[in-house]
Amino acid sequence: MRRCQNCGTDNLDTARYCDECGTMLVADIESGHPPPSGDSVVEAASRAGKTLAGSGRGRRAEKESSVSSPRARLMVARGVSAGHEFPLSGTEWLIGRWDPEQGIFPDVDLDPVDPEVTVSRRHARIWYQNGHYLIEDLGSTNGTFINRGRRLTPGRRYVIRDGDEIIVGKTFLKFIVE
Q: For strand 144-146 and strand 71-76, is the pairing parallel, antiparallel, or unpaired?
């Protein structure tokens, strides 16, 4: 089991994110758990220290207090909800469907715009890191696509740019950098 450094919840050894609060699980050097895909132990530990620093409110507090963070948005591009926007401020955003029973509260909640329920509860995650926006599919059922290309490999990060079309399940989104 991997214990979340933010809320203390025990998660499966294979989990990358906490089932309770959604925080990225960091490598536990003593137990030998590997760091999240593509990160070194130092990078993961450094990020965890940044997430847990300050008021102790975790990732949400970091996002809310980030004054110099980038600003972007996702806009629904098709369907009855076309034009609906999700502002992105901070440095990390979970895309999915809201589920209070399982404690899942995504930053980009597509539940109201996904009538066919093709978006997973924890579908994808977007980061702003080193001047680039990155997206990662979190092992979703119906996949994540950029500009109608191949389905993204779960766990691998891909660069996204202003104007890119992101498809999660059957929901078409346009990524806009402000």
A: unpaired
